[in-house]
Amino acid sequence: MSNSDRSTNPRTVICIGDIHGYIPKLQKLWTNLETLIDPSHFNTALVIFLGDYCDRGPDTRQVIDFLISLPKKYPEQKHVYLSGNHDLAFSAFVGVLPKPSDGSEFKEGWKEYEHNEEREGWFNGDGYESMYLQGRRWAGDIKDKFNAAKGFDYKGSIYDAAPTFHSYGVPHGSADLVKAVPDDHKKFLANMVWIHEEDDVSIETEDGIKHCKLIAVHAGLEKGKNVEEQLKRLKAKDTGVSKVEALSGRKNVWDIPQELTAKPTIIVSGHHGKLHIDGLRLIIDEGGGLPNNPVAAIILPSKKIVRDTDNVVKEL
């Protein structure tokens, strides 16, 4: 599509929130999107998955199969698979994360959080000695099963990872998961990006269509820290830190950093367990991995929200 075509008919961008192992929700949402969006726009859309494909729901393996199948089924679409904090931890456990660029060992990153080790019951099985912290927490066995913040029991670990293990046919916390995860799934996990940028995305505003830069990142960008430096570290997938705030932070990544407000920049994320549309800050995670909540997507430029629970009828 040429630039002149883009301005009159901007590319459709679809951002899909956290799926958390629910294949029926993902399939229904995809069908709804395909039904609602004009085929010529849908088939050439940029589709950004905002991360957290695993944990909580029972179908992680099927979700990843579905995601892997899309480029062949929709060859003209562009697919972006962001890593969420859950996917990062899954990747850590199966050993596909890059090593820290400073040459340090992953275990050096345990020290900062070791006061939580007993409570969170970190993984101590085969391979733990060379594992990134979040992999150990992910496969851990939390001592106090009740999650007071959410009002129900944890599923195995602080990450609710037991259903992911079960979807690959192994018990929670078993080192056998490394062998049980197929190579194409490991490749998918290894290739996930921590951040994605687009230079020209159209969005409807009160002042008409705006052309903006778009940054997609699972939780958001940290306030008070240099944006260029953050982008550089995220693009490099820098595992020298034990907790990647842009993938797992909360209040500190909620707003658009001040320095990005000079040039209009959309920041789109999942992660936060809610739907929040405020100007150019888009947070699309209505599901939060809870069984009775919908999985949502936003379509740009219109900002239309689509859910798996919508009863979409194809217009004749």
Automatic annotation (TrEMBL):
GO terms for molecular function: hydrolase activity. Signal peptide: none annotated. This is Calcineurin-like phosphoesterase domain-containing protein. Pfam families: Metallophos. Residues 12-135 form the Calcineurin-like phosphoesterase domain. It comes from Acer negundo (Box elder).
